[in-house]
Design brief:
With 196 residues, the chain is of the alpha+beta class. It has a domain at 74-135 and 144-162. Helix content is 41%, strand content 15%. A 5-stranded antiparallel β-sheet has the order 2-1-5-4-3, sandwiched between helices. The longest helix has 19 residues, at 91-109. The chain is globular.
Length: 196
């Protein structure tokens, strides 16, 4: 829009800026309320902005300790062959659904950054085959589970994604809060046990 001579409709403010303090506190509150279950806040390109302790515990269980102050892109972590994929039993099904959502984002916003993210994700080994393989549509569950397995531990989770209503800032427009919920009592017990 700027290149075409139009002023941007909304400003873009850093999430830590004083004018976003109320939103920042609300975000912290939402993440805290999700405990002991995982919750994260990401931008449109799936860059991790914040995570609650439940999310940190889940990731550290699956892939080991996180390196402080290292940027994390959850799309790459999900799709790349060496992060979450080895522990995600139904990776092909999950990635097929996830890539569709990134394709929708790329079509909606038309930015080079989202297009680049989509191409980067498609370039990972096995992704194109997963996308092209017909889905064995299962109606056994009303939502698509993420079925993690590491050693003898199995976790079945589903996610919800929330956005802010009526944002007037690009940062807030692109903010997504993803909450992970257990799909069975065993998963709930494990997540609660890790929080003790």
């Amino acid at each position: 829009m700027i290149a075409a001579g139009f002023a941007p409709v909304w400003r873009q403010t850093d999430l830590a800026a004083p004018e976003l303090a109320d939103v920042s506190r609300a975000l912290d509150y939402m993440l805290a309320q999700q405990e002991p279950y995982p919750a994260v806040a990401v931008d449109r390109h799936w860059n991790l902005l914040r995570a609650n302790s439940g999310a940190v515990r889940l990731v550290e269980f699956l892939v080991g300790p996180l390196v402080p102050d290292t940027p994390v892109n959850l799309a790459d972590a999900l799709v790349a062959p060496d992060v979450l994929r080895p522990h995600l039993v139904n990776w092909a099904e999950v990635v097929r659904y996830f890539i569709r959502s990134v394709e929708a984002d790329a079509a909606a916003d038309g930015t080079p950054q989202t297009a680049a993210l989509l191409e980067r994700l498609r370039a990972y080994s096995g992704v194109r085959a997963a996308i092209e393989t017909p889905s064995a549509e299962s109606t056994a569950t009303p939502v698509l589970p993420m079925h993690f397995r590491k050693g003898q531990t199995e976790l079945l989770l589903f996610t919800t994604i929330a956005t802010l209503g009526n944002p007037r800032d690009i940062t807030l427009q692109e903010l997504r809060i993803e909450n992970f919920f257990p799909m069975d009592a065993a998963t709930a017990d494990i997540l609660r046990g890790w929080a003790v």
